[in-house]
Amino acid sequence: MKDEIKGKVWKFRDSIDTDVIIPGRYLRTFSLDELASHVMEGEDPNFAENVGQGDIIVAGWNFGCGSSREQAPVALKHAGVDAIVAKSFARIFYRNAINVGLPVIVADIEASKGDQLRIDLAEGVIQNLTTGENYTIQPFHKFMLGILEDGGLVKHYLRGKKGNQS
What is the mean pLDDT of residues 85-94? Predict the structure, then answer.
């Protein structure tokens, strides 16, 4: 994870729920590859095979609503999604995403599928490199950037524990 993210946009509607992100029938597996191979298939059957490392989801209101399943942000991250920008997030999805090291950004931006975005989390700027539009967002605090950089909350905690040993 880095302070700056640059990638291709995948555009989704309002109220994408966790069952759309990763359908419940796939939750019996512990394979991240298997989860990632089915991510977003109810919304875009070709998403999993076409999403690339570093891509960015741009969505409307209430992204990640529904159940509290942590597999939803895990599957997105493992599939290659580096960030999600949405007008709003379900609270539990937002927390789960940060906990697994997936940046989620609350912002109302204009972007189309295939546009290129550059997101600077520390500075609080989103640039649509395709259209030239710039958006100001709330910069991420150093603590939050540390969690994301370490790959999630548990890894961040464990890194701190190792650093505090004498």
Answer: 97
Q: List the strands of the sheet with 55-59, edge to edge.
A: 104-106, 81-86, 55-59, 4-11, 116-120, 125-128, 134-136
SS3 of residue 118 by DSSP: strand
pLDDT at 166 over 70: no
Q: Is 164 left (phi over 0), alpha (psi -120 to 50) or beta?
A: alpha
For residue 4, give the amino acid letter.
Answer: E
Which parts of 31-142 are beta strand (E)?
55-59, 81-86, 104-106, 116-120, 125-128, 134-136
Cα–Cα distance between 70 and 159 in angstroms, integer? Answer: 22
The pTM assigned to this predicted structure is: 0.93
Who's near 64: CB < 8 A, 6+ residues apart?
A: 16, 17, 18, 21, 72, 73, 89, 90, 92, 93, 94, 96, 97
